[in-house]
Amino acid sequence: IGRSFNEAIQKACQSLENKALGLGIYSEKEYKAEELIEYIKIPKWDRIFKIKEALMRGVTVKTVCQATRIDKWFINQLNNLCLLEKEIAQYTIETLPINLLKDAKKDGFGDAQLAKILQGQCTEDQVYEKRKAAGITRVYKMVDTCSAEFEAKTPYFYSSFEG
């Protein structure tokens, strides 16, 4: 659960029992764009990660939509995450602007994921300390299980970052 699709998809990917750090697995193998386009044509458990990898390698949203038959809105959301990741990768932990860190956290990037994107030049703890010092902390939101028709007897909560 998240405040946006991007946050929710990142949190969902983080919860998988694989090496995923959010939407990025950051595989060791280098795939060519053509290989990725062929791979994503068939639904598989890891297709979303390969779609992200294709977008990171410059495959267009249109090409991904044609190959997967997934609606353009969803692919655009994944592409926005890729663009944000590319922007973050230009910085070190010391030079990473606070507003960019806030945007990353709102879009569901985990501290470990950000440390990896920053080319391993920092640790998860350093990302945590930077965001803590900037006042970027979790908030907890209640899930409205009753659609505001009446008060829920057993509400539950999820965490999110709002800066």
UniProtKB/TrEMBL annotation:
Keywords tagged on the record: ATP-binding, Ligase, Magnesium, Manganese, Metal-binding, Nucleotide-binding, Pyrimidine biosynthesis
Domain Carbamoyl-phosphate synthetase large subunit oligomerisation: 36-161
Annotated GO biological process: glutamine metabolic process; pyrimidine nucleotide biosynthetic process
Entry superkingdom: Bacteria
SUPFAM superfamilies reported in the protein's UniProt record: Carbamoyl phosphate synthetase, large subunit connection domain
Coiled-coil region: none
A GO molecular-function descriptor: ATP binding
PANTHER family to which the protein is assigned, alphabetical: CARBAMOYL-PHOSPHATE SYNTHASE [AMMONIA], MITOCHONDRIAL, CARBAMOYLTRANSFERASE FAMILY MEMBER
Protein name per the record: Carbamoyl-phosphate synthase subunit L
